[in-house]
Amino acid sequence: MMSVERLSIELTNQCSKQCHFCYNSSHPIGNTTWTADELITFVTDCAQAGTQAVSFGGGEPLEYPALFEVLQRLQGMVFRSITSNGLHLWGSTLRRLVSVHPDKVHLSIHFPEQLWEVNRVMAQVKQLESLGIRSGINLLVSASKLTAAGQVAQTLRESGIANDRIVYLPMRGKDTPTPQQVAEVAGKEPFQSMTCLTNCQKSERFCAVTWDKKVAWCSYTSAQQPLESLTAKALDKALEDLPLIFCS
């Protein structure tokens, strides 16, 4: 069996932002079970089995001490992307990230009603672009904040950050918008979102691995299975007969 095409790995559940809705229940005093060597071993084996892209998240990946080492050692092996809140992305941290040249960086806007966050993320995305790093934005869309999200999305598009660089993420758990509402926020133009936007289902192309080395069909489901070893074969085995429990 070929391993999944796209793999999401939570490096840690540590995150200074500690959003109340976080699917990972991340917090400032978080943890991880991944060493750099373990990540390299696992991703290398998955790449040899067919995995083409790995996205690193958390928690906050910039709070994982070995992030830059991992990105550097995996360069040229797979497509490497990170999703960050951007709070630490300045000074020496920004310089170190640019030096290992990830293939893509997406920064999150969790609170579209907070102008300071919107302006910060917009500026950071444009700065990354100017430094030669492919960048984009994950915009969280909540049913109770549709007006704010729509205004931010329009501002982003008018600033030159088009829908091909924005991922419209519907809030999960509670305050979930309808697919039609997400489309309205996206300006009724083609847009990117989660594959489960209209229907909760497994994707043979994608799965997630948690900070404590458990496998799930997505980052939101509560159905998880521990990895028996850090191999593509163990990943495939963990996915066998693994259910997908709807998050909402």
TrEMBL record:
Transcription keyword on record: no
Q: Which UniProt keywords apply?
A: Iron, Iron-sulfur, Metal-binding, S-adenosyl-L-methionine
Gene Ontology MF: a single term: catalytic activity
InterPro entries annotated for this entry?
A: Aldolase_TIM, Radical_SAM_PqqE_MftC-like, rSAM, rSAM_sf
Domain Radical SAM core, by residue range, is 1-205
PROSITE patterns per the record?
Answer: RADICAL_SAM (PS51918)
Protein name per Swiss-Prot or TrEMBL: Radical SAM core domain-containing protein
Its source organism is Acaryochloris marina (strain MBIC 11017)
What phylogenetic lineage does the species belong to?
Bacteria, Bacillati, Cyanobacteriota, Cyanophyceae, Acaryochloridales
